[in-house]
Amino acid sequence: MYAKKLFRKIADAYFLGNLLTMAVIVVLLYFGVKYGLEFYTHHGEGIVVPQVKGMTYNRARQLLEEDGLTIMVTDSGYNKTLPADYILAQTPGYGTKVKSGHTVYVTVNSPSSPTIAIPDIVDNSSVREAEAKLMAMGFRLLPAKKVSGERDWVYGIICRGRRVSNGDRISTDYPLTLLVGDGSIGDYEDFEYVEPSYAVPEDGDIDEFEEVSEPEME
User: How far is 96 from 79, CA to CA, in rounded Å?
Assistant: First the structure.
C-alpha cells in the first residue's frame, strides 16, 4: 500500500513537472517570437521621408542617404522652365514614415524634350484628321501651307524648314506645318466638246499611207 502511494506521488510530481515545463516553453516561445519579430522588422521604428521634390538628383540622394534611405529614378518628364535632373515627383511623399533602408522612387526632369515619331498621315489623311492626331500627341501646328492637290488632303509636313516623313522622330518643341491640297486637282469644270478637224492640203489631195508589202521568202 505504501509503495502504491509513493508511486502515485512520484507520478503526480512527474506529471506536474511536465505541465510546468510545457507552460514555461510556451511562454518563452511567445515572448521569443513577439520580440524577435519586432527586432527583425524594426517594429516602432519610423523615418520621416523628407521633401526631395524640387531638388536636384544629387542633392536629394545625399539627403536621403543621410537619413538611411535610398533613391531610385523610375521615370522622367520634361519641363523646359526647369533644370535637368530636377526632381518632379516622389513616392512615398513627404512626411510618410518608412523603415530604414526604404527606397524613395523619383521622377526627374529630362535635359531635352521628348521626340515622337510622326504618325502615318502624309498622303493618307485629311487635314482635319492629321491635325487631331498631331495635337493629341503634343505637337504644335503652324498655319497650313497650300499646295497643288486635292482639297484638304495632306501631302507633306515641314519642320524647321525641311520636309519630314511618316516615322521620323521630331521634338515636340518644334512646330509643324502641314502641306495641304488647295483643290486644284479633283475639281472638274464643264468644257464644250469640239469635234476634231483634219487639215487638208491646199491642192485638195489627202495623203494616204503607202502600202508596204512583206518581202517574199525565197
Answer: 26
Dist. CA 28–CA 73, nearest whole Å: 45
Angstrom distance (rounded) from CA 52 to CA 215: 100
What pLDDT does 46 receive? 83
DSSP β-bridge partners for residue 72: 105
What distance in Å separates the CA atoms of residue 65 and residue 57, rounded to the nearest whole number? 12
pLDDT in tens, 17-61: 666 777 778 777 776 666 665 555 555 568 999 999 999 999 999
| C-alpha closest to that of 42 among 97, 93, 90 | 97
What's the maximum distance between 2 C-alpha atoms anywhere in the chain? 169
State pTM to two decimals.
0.48
Contact by Cβ (8 Å): 130, 121? yes
Closest CA to 105 of 146, 66, 74: 74
- Angle ∠(20,25,28) on CA atoms, nearest 5: 125
Residue of 71, 103, 108, 73 whose CA lies nearest to 87: 108
